[in-house]
Amino acid sequence: MKTPIETATELIQKANNIIVLTGAGISTESGLSDFRSKSGLYQHTPSEILSRDFFQKQPEVFYEFIQTYLRIQDVEPNKGHHLIARWEQNGKVSEVITQNIDGLHQAAGTKQIIEFHGTLKTATCMNPSCRQAYQLEQVFERKEERPYFWLCDCGELIKPDVVLFGDVGSHMNHQDIFDIRTRIWDCDLLLVLGTSLEVYPFSDFVRYRNKDVPTIIVNKGRTSFDYERNVLVIRQSIGDVLEQIDQNLQES
Ligand code: OAD
């Protein structure tokens, strides 16, 4: 009998329009924490901290949290990110749609990417008539001279360019979401890596797959899609799984 990794290799071998959906689990091997696993950030901090309401009420606590726990400037892409980038160069992967705000897919060389929850690299003043753009590092550098470093010179809050719970009219409009769903329907393999698929609307993308097309989920924890038709689940480390598949592909 074939192992799940052998089956996954065969499926990936046949595909040339793979869409990859990723979550925090692909970046844990770079040293970042995920949110909902046993070692995830929500074990010690309630998820409300990543809400618009919390950010507006307690920006100092919010900034402290992202500086302490989401230190994206200190991390490098890992073998999972690199292999996905290589598979894009080889023409297998068409696009990565990520919930991650760490920029690690791009750092590994992935070109076709949608950062569905935005990015932690940059920030923007919330005042509609100012909209001053910042690098997030720049915002933290202002700490030296200003006690309220999260305030723009115009007096309004500077918000990192990430999508928070409760954000309305985010950077993705209905047409963008429709287009993503269409591309997911058209792909010939859906590869889901390191996400609990608990956050809507991202989680819903999996519903828009063509169920005659295979889906592979590589995730240590369970998801609500694990027992659906034509879904292969591998509950192991993403880096190891992708590496073994890549070796098999090269040997075949
Ligand atoms: P979660 O923490 O919900 O899920 C990450 C999943 O990855 C868990 O099921 C882990 O078991 C799994 N995992 C961790 N490391 C792994 C590894 N090396 N190999 C395989 N699996 C691994 O993270 P997301 O699904 O990304 O939103 O969370 C979605 C959103 O919730 C985030 O984008 C963030 C958060 O609130 C916002 O901030 C708006």
Helices and strands, with pairings:
Blueprint: H1 4-14, E1 18-22, H2 52-57, H3 59-69, H4 79-89, E2 93-98, H5 104-108, E3 113-115, E4 118-125, E5 133-135, H6 136-141, E6 158-162, H7 174-186, E7 189-193, E8 215-218, E9 231-234, H8 238-251
Parallel strand pairs: 1-2, 1-7, 2-3, 7-8, 8-9
Antiparallel strand pairs: 4-5, 4-6
Helix pairs in contact: 1-8, 4-8
This protein binds 2'-O-acetyl adenosine-5-diphosphoribose.
Please provide a written account of the structure.
The protein has 252 residues and is α/β, with parallel strands linked by helices. The chain is 31% helix and 17% strand. It contains 8 helices and 9 strands. The strands form 2 sheets. It has a 6-stranded parallel beta sheet with strand order 3-2-1-7-8-9, covered by helices on one side. The two termini are 18 Å apart. The site of 2'-O-acetyl adenosine-5-diphosphoribose has 27 residues, from loops.
